[in-house]
Amino acid sequence: MRAALALLALTALPITFAIDAPTSPPFIHPRGKGEIVLPVSGTTLSIIDFGASTDADGLTNQKAVNSAIAALSQGDSLVIPKGTFKLVGGVVASGLRNNTITIDGTLEFEYNADDWPLDPDQKNEKFMDCIHVEDSIDVAITSSTVGIINGGGKPWWDKMIAGTLPPKNSDSRPKLIHFVSTADVLIEKIEMVNSPSWNLVVDATRAEIRNIEVKTNREYQRELKTKKYYSSSSDAKDKVKEWLVDKVSGLIPAWLLEPEDLNTDGIDPSGIDFWIHDVKIYNDDDSIAVKPSKGGSVGIDGTKYDCTQNMLLENMELVGFGASIGSVPPTPDRKCIDGITMRNVSMPGTGKGIYIKSNGNDCQDGKTSQLTNLLFEDFTITDPFWYAIWIGPQQQHEPGSDLGLDCALIYPLHDSQCPTQGCSDFENITFRNVEIVNPKLSPGAILGNSSNPMRNIHFENVVVKQDSHVLGRWPWHEDKFPFEGTYESVNCGTCTCNGCSPLPAGFVEV
């Protein structure tokens, strides 16, 4: 009886905190409207004046940069001049107000476990971020040309795959740039290279991110993962490898199934009122991953919000593993993403395309989550080797481990499963003018839950164009000749389509 009442409650979950997906920029940084960011009237400092040098070691330069940041008063500017400055991580800016940081040279972080400080706030002993900005309002990171921040990721990735990262042989890697508890942020004209883990994480109320590029050595990462995969002696992995390589003719690369995730996300935004535009991201994990906020969030400026909300992301080239929403796990404080637009996006040779994901968490103790009012418009997804469209649980379960509540990364291969969550609300999601060209696999999946189906999912001019007579028809295809590839589509309660090819199961043409 209690289970039946719980099921009824899930089907009637209210959608809260909902706004329309934005069509115009929610925020334009007031000091970044032109080609040159206007500094606030104040003093300009240089890291050279505090002891930084292109000949100095990483720890010396780190201390110099931190001293320069600590000397900034409200309205001051900091310049990193031309040249290459070696650093270790732990560059921290806290309590900034109306400051401009201009990077005209290269900040080159180098792996040095002895000098790189550990984060004092992390109980699991992680290294401090390369650059960490917190509790700050009106901060602009810019360049008069193009500033380069090189994370020196290769030794971090090597040790991650080998399981030898200090101090406890776990994933202790730093993020490259991390903004937390900030407002009125501007980041532009920066090239981020080979981050140890995530590249740019911005948690803020109001942010503009523009004209940046993320470059990750994708081939090196794939080589590492492939070597690790084939060196494994696990029976379960051997079976999966045999199935994939011998039966599927290598359509899914073995490196993709490696349990160790190098996790070099491109941009991970959370908060409210963002405009992200004119960016290029080349990586092997989520190119964009909009992260959720929890109910009752309060920004440093006092702004109250209950969702990551009101974000416009446009004019992007993404080659990685998804223009992603989430993951959004069910939690007692209702993790939530609402009112997000992504448009004018090119994804040539990507892994996944559009990826909207909840998470394999249980629905006990009042846990819920929300993914609502999402618009994806004017996408070209060319030669994707994984699913071009995925709406449902995050694929994260790895071969050789217990499934539990996770969705298998290799789903639907090898009798794998993909459990959905009845306490995660998917509603008001629109795909408009999405072209999928020559996908290697079937176009994708829309996986709702039987107790709480997806609602108001609308496809408009979502078209697959396939030149091959073989590819794109596996693992899901139409029942009749010529057996064209289609979607797996289940528990989509009110789903409609206008001008779609193919038409997902359960969608009504309008």
Automatic annotation (TrEMBL):
Family the UniProt entry places it in: Belongs to the glycosyl hydrolase 28 family.
Protein name: Glycoside hydrolase family 28 protein
InterPro entries, A to Z: Glyco_hydro_28 (IPR000743), Pectin_lyas_fold (IPR012334), Pectin_lyase_fold/virulence (IPR011050)
Keywords: Disulfide bond, Glycoprotein, Glycosidase, Hydrolase, Signal
Keyword Glycoprotein: yes
Database matches in Gene3D superfamilies: Single-stranded right-handed beta-helix, Pectin lyase-like (2.160.20.10)
SUPFAM superfamilies: Pectin lyase-like (SSF51126)
Protein origin, superkingdom: Eukaryota
Signal peptide residues on this chain, from the entry's feature table: 1-18
GO biological process: carbohydrate metabolic process
GO molecular function: polygalacturonase activity; rhamnogalacturonan alpha-L-rhamnopyranosyl-(1->4)-alpha-D-galactopyranosyluronide lyase activity
Source organism: Triparma laevis f. longispina
